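Forwarding these from the shared drive since the link keeps breaking.
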Amino acid sequence: MLGDEATRTLDTVHELELADDLFERLSATHDRYHPQAYAFVLAALEYSQLRRPARGHIGGGELAWACRDLARDQFGLTAATVLSHWGVHSTRDLGRIVYQLIDAGLLISQPQDRIEDFDGVFEFTEAFEREYPWSGVHRNGGKG
């Protein structure tokens, strides 16, 4: 069962589906990412805002972590597979999507923002496989 944050985020994703035409055009223009990848990054931005005490600017690293958390919440063990299907294989890909959304006028950057802020924030293999939060499994060999 999804938590309140994930449920609100899913509602946001459904609202963003109304923008499918725009995402289709972005995908066709850049020919690298599935249209749902754009909707997902925007949903992760909102997901991150909901977890803060006040809305405000979100930097590249924070957004990348929000994408990881939302992917885990929304897709569970299949998160890496879903993101890969959408063409997203690294945090740099998340940055490219953000900057394509900026170029399309859907997001606004701050002067200090750089695409390099997304470089190497985390490794997908670590985030979605080795560090996956398995419930009921203890990392100390099952003791404790």
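-- next protein --
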Amino acid sequence: MDTTHQNRLPPEFRPREKYAEDPSGKALSSVELPTIILAMGSAECPLHDLALRMIDAFPALGTFEKTDWLEMKARFTKYNECNPRRPIKGLSDAKLMKVAAAFQLTRRGIPLEDYAFRNYSLRISSSAYEVFRRIVENTP
């Protein structure tokens, strides 16, 4: 099936339509979410494949979402060197900035993620104070 053109897929397989049906986004996979941001692939790399390869270029999804667009570009270049048969193609700087901006927006909306507490030993009051001080400073 040609995944270059999302409109050729049945509606239940189109990420935008799935998102319209479930506004929470929980029905979308980690590969489908970037396809919505990117909107289109290229002749050399269909949209679904592009999103999958972008994610594959990082050791973890959390690493991908914390990366700026220049680091993304560097990782994709390295990915292409290591995977010449499955290269990431069709990603302009503008598209990379679009993806990185979406991630940046989410980081600004969540001042301190739940897992950040695992990085602290809260056995003494000064440690607890430091964690909660950061929460208060980052609360809009």
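Helices lie at 15-21, 32-38, 47-56, 61-65, 69-82, 93-109, 125-138. Residues 111-140 form one domain.

- D.
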